[in-house]
Amino acid sequence: MAWTTILSSIGIGLLSGLAYLANTVYQHRSKINQLRKQGIPMPKEWSWLTGHLLVLQKYVDKIPPDANVNLAMADLCKEYADTEVFLMDFWPVYPPLLMVYSPDTAVQISTKYNLPKTSMHLKMMKPVAGGPNLISMSGKEWKVWRSLFNPGFSAGSMMENVPHIVDYVNVFCERLREKVEGKEMFCLDDLTTRLTMDIIIKVTLDADLDYQRKENPLATALGYITRWHSFWDPRILMHPARPFIQKYNSHVMNTYIRKELDQRFTELREEKMTTEKSTPTGRGKSVITLALEAYIASNQDRDISTMTKLDSHFAQYATYQIRLFLFAGNDTTSSSIVYTYHMLSKHPSALATLRTEHDAIFGSNPSAASALLKQNPALLNQCPYTLAVIKETLRLFSPAATMRSGQPGIVVTDQLNNSYPMDHVGATIVHQAVHLNPRIWPRATEFLPERFLVSPDHPLYPNPAAYRPFEQGPRNCIGQTLVYNEMRIVLVLTARLFDIRPVYDEFDARNAAEESWVKRGLKSVGVLKEPLKTVNGERAYQTEKAGTHPADGYPCRVEMADWTGARA
Ligand code: HEM
Known about the structure:
Layout: H1 2-37, H2 53-60, H3 69-77, E1 85-88, E2 97-100, H4 103-112, H5 119-129, H6 139-149, H7 155-160, H8 162-182, E3 186-187, H9 188-205, H10 217-227, H11 234-237, H12 242-274, H13 287-297, H14 312-328, H15 331-346, H16 348-362, H17 369-375, H18 384-396, E4 402-404, E5 411-413, E6 419-421, E7 426-429, H19 431-434, H20 480-494, E8 498-502, H21 504-513, H22 517-524, E9 555-560
Parallel strand pairs: 2-7
Antiparallel strand pairs: 1-2, 3-9, 4-7, 5-6, 8-9
Helix pairs in contact: 8-9, 8-17, 8-20, 9-15, 10-12, 12-13, 12-14, 15-18
The structure holds protoporphyrin IX containing FE (HEM).
Protoporphyrin IX containing FE (HEM) binds at residues 134-135, 146, 324-325, 328-329, 332-333, 336, 399-400, 402, 469-471, 475, 477-479, 482-483.
């Protein structure tokens, strides 16, 4: 009797669970079905069970297994060239999203309505930041933290960082020289990631890690978190080891940052107690300093001598933001530096124009540029072609995108004036697609830095709404001035000294030679397939590794350049 009761209770529990699940699926999919009936453009292979998940998979299968999912999405976008907006039902993996690559619709989402972030943002960014952060926050909470950090990332503040960046780039040059001497093949991505890590840690924590020369627990922990992070790849997201690895490294990062916060707080407190000024002087506005100044300012009613330690809630939130800066400021910039070298190696005439510009601004001796930049950081602003090269690289290889939540009553329109109600759907602006939109960009796939230098009446002049590597509107990237400075300094100090070229053929041949005989045998009888190695003919495709690192870390060789330029 007791058994029958237990079994029937389990049965009823299971049935109720199934009924709840079926009802949730039905409720969700019927909303999409309704939009389908209203004629909202979307792939027709929609299913009540899987939505559009399998549709995207078809495109993912056409690119290498480690390629960035946005490259597959950009391919799918081409099928909606008339509207430049279509719906993808990714639920339950992601919310259903309008895929947008029309500049005008993008402006409505980012600027006109400034739609909030989705609940997925916190979920996706939590392993990286540890908790709520500038990327995931919305509304008032976001505004408070953003205004707190805006001055620290201002153009003026960033100019103050130029001398530090020059020092780190000089170490990067030394490392490149070692590679020249060693005549070895190496992964450029590793060197640039260490460089950008040194820079972002200096700007954020005011600390010198010298990570280009030696290991450091903070940088290593962030490296692990990044390697075990993905916005899409189920092989990483569902890996059973992932939560443990991330938890451990999260702890390492929190401990390190908390120690820095406490130490800097004690310094600021002592400084404040011994000076009359309310804000400390003599220290650059590093992110950590700004956060602490705000904390002290918000406690002005308290006697500073009684504030012996940081409020733990504040310290926790400040740690999340600092972790975000370290993540956001490292990988994206490092990949972008690699892609700039890649473009220059493919376009020798652009490289020559860039070098000529550097000769004109910094004189014919490349080694003199460091000292000149330190003396007068504003010289960076006299290099328009250098900036154009960077902008064009970021157009062709954008490392990010934006996702926003829907809102009841919001309706966006496409270029044909079709309406898209956003009551139940969010939106993603697909940067890789908007930047290659052939309706907007003449010769869209070509590397033409001059498009950023021509006057508005020139056919190449870009539509400002179509160029959005850092997004637009109030939620644009806080770090963009830092990125432009960093990348310009790297080019000024390296482009005339080194010739860097990719050596994927050599890398692939070496790997093939080292392949086990079992693998070779299985390939020869067709059991194992040779994996795809290019996307649209590009071997250095963007991968799923956070920050869209180039495939296989960009194997390359470097030689001293025989540029004589102005000296000739
Ligand atoms: C090439 C390098 C970079 C690119 C392409 C890039 C791109 C972007 C994009 C597209 C967004 C909007 C994301 C969204 O809407 O969800 C964003 C936001 C953000 N980025 Fe960057 N970023 C870069 C480097 C940096 C750096 C160096 C920092 C330094 C701290 C940084 C910090 C942030 C932060 C904090 C946000 C959130 C801003 C907010 O919502 O208020 N990024 N970035």
